[in-house]
Design goal:
By secondary structure, the protein is mostly helical. The protein has one domain (3-96). The protein has four helices and no strands. Helix 1 packs antiparallel against helix 2 (33-61). The longest helix has 29 residues, at 33-61. The N and C termini lie far apart (38 Å).
Length: 100
């Protein structure tokens, strides 16, 4: 992936993170504790996926894109390019499911 594409994806990932934070704020102000917990759990799961499968691999390939001042150290895990190669070698989940 070229650097410009990586930058564009990271900008949009930050936008997603902002939207997720807004969702939690809405839940805090309008939901009971149980409902708020459900929202927080869902948002946490989505954020984890976004970070683990997109942001961290992009940072691994492009450490110069890590925002200045971000308390971030390299994490063990595949680079974005490695994930792409692996996905090209495996059929999508929809193709591996047995159809009736």
């Amino acid at each position: 992936m070229d650097k410009d594409t990586a930058e564009q994806l990271l900008v949009r990932a930050r936008g997603c993170i902002d939207l997720f934070n807004e969702m939690v704020e809405i839940a805090q102000s309008r939901c009971d504790k149980g409902e708020e917990r459900v929202v927080r759990h869902a948002v946490g799961y989505a954020l984890s996926e976004l970070l683990d499968r997109l942001v961290v691999p992009i940072f691994s390939d492009n450490p110069d894109l890590i925002p200045e001042g971000l308390d971030y150290g390299p994490l063990d895990g595949p680079k974005f390019s490695e994930l792409a190669t692996k996905m090209n070698q495996q059929p999508p989940p929809s193709e591996t499911r047995k159809k009736p």
